[in-house]
Amino acid sequence: MASESDASSIATLSCARCEKPAHLQCPKCIDLKLPREQASFCTQECFKAAWSSHKSVHVKAQLSSIGDQNSDLISQGWLYCVKKGQARTPKLPHFDWTGPLKQYPISTKRVVPAEIEKPDWAIDGTPKVEPNSDLQHVVEIKTPEQIQRMRETCKIAREVLDAAARVIRPGVTTDEIDRVVHEATIAAGGYPSPLNYYFFPKSCCTSVNEVICHGIPDARKLEDGDIVNVDVTVCYKGCHGDLNETYFVGNVDEASRQLVKCTYECLEKAIAIVKPGVRFREIGEIVNRHATMSGLSVVRSYCGHGIGDLFHCAPNIPHYARNKAVGVMKAGQTFTIEPMINAGGWRDRTWPDGWTAVTADGKRSAQFEHTLLVTETGVEVLTARLPSSPDFGGDVVFKDELFDYVGGFEKRDMCMDPDLMIWSIFDDFPKENGVSGPVEKVWYKLAHEDLVSVRAISEDRDSGIRQLCNEALIGGEVDVYIQDFHLSKP
């Protein structure tokens, strides 16, 4: 509320609630330049009592402002998307918006040249092969020929996303990002897979701030302090490559930076366990643990998925704990991991456009995604960043401190048997960069000497690891050996 020093300027006004002489003004109304008559109150108590009804004044003013800003766009054929992309309207749909963002008009559908090979939904918006395929229930093992096509496609998808990232800055609309994605995809001989997929109206997804996923590129200009996720999928030579990243727009607050950093780490930690024999459900355990340790939550409505000649197929990859994903990883499988992490609660809602998923509490959300190939010994990130890939904005370079490249060791060198959840014990102990610290040396020794046997008693094994970490933290380097399949110190 405005301070008492403003009282003289509003002494002739009456309280909007009780009509007593007003002494205060609503600061939000002042910011919105609303008439003083509806912004004045006698006391803080009266203002608080009127808040539930008074705040609707702000919403109406904001919607009116958006309508005024967009009137020229409407006259040029830009319309609001409704009914999951199957209809348009010149009026902003009514909705109880959960955060500051609201729908903006979208431009007309972009054209794909006739010579580009297209998926079956390109014309009428309805996939026909995908929903009826046996691969919705059986995880496909790709042939060498399929794998090679996927490598080509995923490299194109990476280059397209990088092109989009280079134009992100305050003042750029998400529709402009979509134009870059569309044109870069076409130039590479590919089709933008999202375009007309179940009537999705654009060539990529752009999810800003509280939007979790499937945001439709529109006329809104990115603002300083936003975060924006760009999700790209390319169809090339009959197969799909899918990835996304979240970027900073200008100067972003620390809470948003930490949200994006944690989300990136969730994906990295999940990828680190991928190899033959690992259960798909373990991915959710890894992601959920890291997110909750940072005070964040994991979206449950949307999951990773199998990918290849089909855009979406088995397996289903939930990112939350205690999920019921079925099956184990095998060499030759391809799928995405794409955790969506929220600053507040995990629940979501969907906008009237039928696509845009937003946080139910209006707090921000971030996401990262890669398409992966399970190899005989581990994993190949098909959509991996290139040396030329731009950073995420704001001069930020993400590093997982535990896996920082030090002393010639790489991240993969530090990864233990991913099927054993006991490695979370190490999260309880302070660590140094790289593998030079005492706790890291214990970690590395245990991993490479294969000292953790499946025959060990779980309680003894966990207790032994915890003991070794404590001793290493207190006394420096600790030699490790195994006796009777239990961990101990000589």
Automatic annotation (TrEMBL):
A protein binds at residues 214, 312. This is Methionine aminopeptidase. It catalyses: Release of N-terminal amino acids, preferentially methionine, from peptides and arylamides. GO terms for molecular function: initiator methionyl aminopeptidase activity; metalloaminopeptidase activity; zinc ion binding. Its main location: cytoplasm. GO terms for cellular component: cytoplasm. Its EC number is 3.4.11.18. Cotranslationally removes the N-terminal methionine from nascent proteins. The N-terminal methionine is often cleaved when the second residue in the primary sequence is small and uncharged (Met-Ala-, Cys, Gly, Pro, Ser, Thr, or Val). Associates with the 60S ribosomal subunit of the 80S translational complex. Zn(2+) 4 binds at residues 242, 305, 338, 369.
